[in-house]
Amino acid sequence: MGKNMTRKIIEDHYVSGSLVAGEEVAIKIDHTLTHDVTGTPAYLSFETLGIPKVKTERSVSYIDHNMLYADNKNPDDHIYLQTVAKKYGIYLSKAGNGICHTVHFERFSRPGITLLGSDSHTPTGGAVGALAIGAGGLDVALAMAGEPTYLKMPFVVNVNLHGKLRPGVSAKDVILEMLRRETVKGGIGKVYEYTGEGVASISVRDRSTITNMGAEMGATTSLFPSDEIVHEFFINEQREQDWIKLGPDEDAEYDEVIDIDLDKIEPLVAMPDMPDNVTEARNLKNIKINQVFIGSCTNASYTDFAKAAVIVDGKVAHSEVSFVVAPGSRQMYLMLLRDGIIGKLVAAGARIIECGCGACCGIGQAPSTDGVSLRTSNRNFKGRGGHLNAKLYLSSPEVAAASAITGYITDPRDFYDVEMLENIIEPDDFIVDDRLIIPPAEDGADVEVVRGPNIRPMPINDPLPETLNAKVSAVRGDNITTDDITPANAQFSALRSNIPEISKFCYGRIDPGFHDRCKTLGQSIIVGGENYGQGSSREHAALAPMYLGVKAIIAKSMARIHKNNLVNYGVLPLLFENQEDYDSIEMMDELEVENIAEQIQTRKVTVKNITKNTSFKTKVDLTDREISIIIAGGQLRYVANKNK
Ligand code: F3S
């Protein structure tokens, strides 16, 4: 049998382990990327490893998330990132150059490489045939240090695309359809490989919308073949030398096949508060909106804005709608300016925000109290827009643009002659200008790393005790997101390099007493429902609880990146063997695990509930290596012990 793309790339980068789906494999990483929020802790961790220069082919540090200079914190962090990059052989993409995922596939990525990024939307790079995986900052720090990356060998799903999208329907609707079918946890442990005759009608930018939001299904990554369309893109990026043809073998083997008829897809919208809560835009025509945001690493391409501009041309945004626009990269921003597209959007009342994440993660442009925001971004969890009292809907730029004018969620086909959108394609004459990408020093030995007062050393966990006795500091429901644990808003993310301060916000939005309770308890255990820790890769969601003394999380199921982050920081992730046991636990119950090190080796851990005088069984879904890391007290201690 032939090989799929995932298998080919993993075999090319194989270091050790098993190539059987579900088992652990270690691979070599070619590229890494970080952004300013996850990058600061990643580089603080990298510095503790004492390595003079990164060992990857290319590592890039992006400044794209929090660019609000309201006090010294962000500008100080940006100087830290710039100097640490210069010293250790890392390229630095300055604030204003664009969103990490967009810029990386425009200017650095290439088909067939492995890319590890400290952001859950790193899979965006699958649009050009790179195996691009999101991870915690510490994993990225270790990859920069030349350590292999460990992952579960994925199950590979072939998404077979038939036909062609109709006018007014876009790539965003394809991935919303996937989410409707697969749900937010349907992709766990899987790679989605898109093939079929329908692939040829989808541009690289539109492919990146689909690979980007594969993260919302919990997938390890998503991949498109590197075909003539990708070749053309590399020619336009003036990087033809980086292109290779890459695709699955004709008779490639897959674990599962999904068929999608592109002609049958409708304009879709994800309703609050989950990206898989999807319905047709036409079903929501009575929903009045207060804000429209076109931007983010999902939908901020040239054609996204060109189509939006055609739809709003000559009209003006509804009087009660704040119309916000943020191009994904400086390259596209310059092209949109050159071609008069930004002018049309401004004429229609759009507020142009700098290239970056901004509104997508609640850094600026928060909706009003109880406001309804329609966004082209990828996440609509409660609070993602900056506060809990807003309702976030997700759609394509076409739906967003039509809705900005009408003031209600609008299917573009009911508003505009969408046949006109058919001819809108990205022009060939890209503007290529890398002057906002700062290369590292040839020899970084003499470069001084500048640290502002908000940059504090990384806390390091203690080794696992023999017996864990701790009270339950929280019992959480299903689908707790990393945004629930540590929000991504401006105030929070400005404290990213200061764990003692950031821990004050841990769970603050849904449980204001959490920080003080943990401090009083000294050490504690969190109990969670299904899909605990889904969403963003934010490792602060593991770091802050660890700093507050959380020793273990016992959940019904757990999101992959969050589980990795917990392991990295020495917090024990346990899964209920019988889910009904979840109901027997209450906050402040005293739990005890004896001989933990011995028990976790057997992959079964018995937890005594001292308060209730009962006990229950949990499973340990960890490899031998991960168990050693947990016992050591986390990766930093583990790697230090290994290198002694
Ligand atoms: Fe940024 Fe939002 Fe993407 S925070 S990296 S634009 S998911």
Automatic annotation (TrEMBL):
Keyword Metal-binding: yes
Claim: Metal-binding is one of the keywords in the record: yes
Any single Gene Ontology cellular-component annotation: cytosol
Aconitase A/isopropylmalate dehydratase small subunit swivel domain ranges (all copies): 523-578
Domain annotation Aconitase/3-isopropylmalate dehydratase large subunit alpha/beta/alpha: ranges: 8-281
UniProt GO BP: tricarboxylic acid cycle
Subunit structure: Monomer.
Official protein name in the record: Aconitase
Annotated organism of origin: Sedimentibacter saalensis
